[in-house]
Specification:
Helix content: 55-70%
Number of strands: 8
Largest sheet: 8 strands, mixed
Oligomer: single chain
Structural class: alpha/beta
Strand content: 5-15%
Bound molecules: nicotinamide-adenine-dinucleotide, magnesium ion
Order of helices and strands: EHEHEHEHEHEHEHEHHHHHHHHHHHH
Distance between the termini: 32 Å
Length: 347
């Protein structure tokens, strides 16, 4: 890899992370090219931002460092069909999530450096903080260090994103992948939505109005999570009433108890031994039959209908409504998701 000057960087994919990385790295003085499928859904955006857009093969062939920022489930095919044959000898291959490499779905060529740089925040925040002159903390790892300088390249890239202004933490592909999957399954996406739905059902089944139940178990969750985010559970306890604190102490452990924790450990074991990923790949390859069913069940849950009606009457929500899965739908992708919601994006 050419290191007398800054490495030439190819960003493959221009979604949540891809766009933020490309813009920040360019502003940090790197030579950045974007690689996208011709006519793909984000090509127009990359061109409008002033980037040279090439095919993934051309972009990879011309770069010292290639960042794979497409959805995780298309990375194996992208690597095997396009990148393996086109990456320069000795190039640095970079991922923002370790899933494919850690579980052996991608086996990178032996001559490459293979690194991970994952900002701990959604793309929009990675860009915004950089523009303000701050940064989002990044975690980084090395899977393959052919040149002896893989760590240097990972840190250079993280610094270009603005991550070094905040905090850089070294991890491994294994730790990043397994903790990321566990977080989104047990706590963030899976745990939190199941908790909210069960709380809503409990109140509505007891005869309370769905509107009141919505405010109590979904809407007000933001207030609590914002306090966690700013100052941990300590800050939440400082802000809620004594009655709420006492109720928290005696009832929280009845909802999330030793049995729940045992199931969390089962979930973690299935992530660690590859069972989860094996099932997910099979589901993806089969055309997502169960995924679509599960997704529809969430969309059809009564809390969604009452939520839409109530949110339409909260004007501040209309002004900065985040993009929805529907408006984000990427023709080639099955896993469209909101792109401006911190939790959805971090996960
Ligand atoms: P995204 O869905 O927002 O964007 C994906 C981009 O890839 C789009 O530009 C899409 O058009 C393009 N693309 C799809 N298929 C392609 C193909 N075959 N060839 C070329 N381009 C293709 O994705 P994202 O959320 O930015 O995730 C990218 C990576 O970053 C993933 O590995 C993800 O796990 C990781 N990550 C995401 C976040 C986050 O907050 N979203 C945080 C940390 C890490
Ligand atoms: Mg995740």
């Amino acid at each position: 890899m050419n290191t007398s000057t800054n490495p030439t960087i190819a960003i493959i994919g221009y979604g949540s992370q891809g766009r933020a990385h490309a813009l920040n790295l360019r502003d940090s003085g790197f030579d950045v090219v974007v690689g996208l499928r011709p006519g793909g859904p984000t090509e127009v955006k990359a061109l409008a931002d002033g980037f040279t857009v090439k095919t993934p093969a051309e972009a990879a062939a011309g770069a010292d460092l290639v960042a794979v920022l497409t959805p995780d489930m298309v990375q194996k095919k992208l690597y095997n069909d396009v990148l393996a044959a086109n990456l320069k000898p000795g190039a640095c291959l970079l991922f923002a999530h370790g899933l494919n490499v850690h579980f052996g779905m991608i086996s990178p060529r032996a001559d490459l450096d293979v690194v991970l740089v994952a900002p701990k925040g959604p793309g929009a925040l990675v860009r915004r903080e950089y523009e303000i002159g701050r940064g989002v903390p990044c975690i980084y790892a090395m899977h393959q260090d052919r040149s002896g300088r893989a760590e240097e390249f990972a840190k250079l890239y993280a610094a270009g994103l603005g991550g070094a202004r905040a905090n850089l933490i070294r991890t491994t592909f294994k730790e990043e992948t397994e903790t990321d999957l566990f977080g989104e399954q047990a706590v963030l996406c899976g745990g939190a939505s199941a908790l909210v739905q069960a709380g809503f059902e409990t109140l509505v089944e007891a005869g309370y109005q769905p509107e009141i139940a919505y405010y109590e178990v979904l809407h007000e969750l933001k207030l609590i999570v914002d306090l966690f985010y700013e100052g941990g559970i300590t800050r939440m306890l400082e802000f809620v009433s004594e009655t709420a604190q006492y109720g928290d102490f005696v009832s929280g452990p009845r909802v999330i108890n030793a049995e729940t924790k045992a199931r969390m450990k089962d979930i973690l074991s299935e992530i660690q031994d590859g069972t989860f990923v094996q099932r997910w790949v099979a589901e993806y390859d089969a055309g997502l039959p169960n995924y679509k069913k599960f997704q529809q069940a969430d969309l059809d849950h009564p809390i969604e209908k009452v939520g839409r009606e109530l949110r339409a009457k909260m004007q501040w929500l209309q002004q900065n409504a985040p993009q929805t899965a529907a408006t984000q739908q990427d023709a080639g992708q099955a896993t469209a998701k909101p792109s401006t919601h911190p939790i959805a994006e971090t996960a």
